[in-house]
Amino acid sequence: MPVRFDNYAKKIEMRRQRDREYAWFRWRVFVAEAPPVLDRIEYVEYVLHPTFVNPSRRVADRPTAFALESEGWGGFDIYGTVHWRDGRDEDFEYFLDLGKGWP
Q1: pLDDT number for residue 61
Q2: I want to staple 43 with a disulfide (CB 3.0 to 4.6 A). Which of 13, 60, 81, 89 is the partner?
Q3: Could you give the CA distance from residue 87 to residue 93 in angstroms, rounded to a whole number?
């Protein structure tokens, strides 16, 4: 069964870019699995939209459920790979939904 992901987002400000104003959000995406599954993951590689600086990001922080935090103005598909401790790799795609509130 594929690894489940989830995200939180919160509006932080309005920013002007070119001719428009955009609501800017702080967001966090993470592995939404129980501790036994998290314990079997070595790290997660996230590939963000190409407009991000350094769009490829590696997260090996188990206590945060391999969470990645960043900021932006729109939702998009995040791609990546879960690297398991047993040597397997599992690709994923997750849509970042900025409508999901921060707890």
Answers
A1: 98
A2: 60
A3: 20
The runs of H, that is alpha helices, within 1-103 are: 35-38
For the chain, first and last CA: distance in Å? Answer: 27
CATH number of the domain within which 82 lies: 2.60.40.1970
Domain of residue 24, residue span: 5-95
pTM, two decimals, is 0.91
**Residue 103 belongs to a domain:** no
DSSP code of residue 4:
P
Domain count, the chain: 1
- Please check the confidence at residue 17 and state whether its pLDDT lies above 80: no
Task: For residue 72, give every residue at least 6 positions away whose Cβ sits within 8 Å of its Cβ, in sequence order, or none.
Answer: 24, 25, 27, 49, 52
Q: pLDDT digit string (tens) for 33-75?
A: 999 999 999 999 999 999 999 999 999 999 999 999 999 988 9
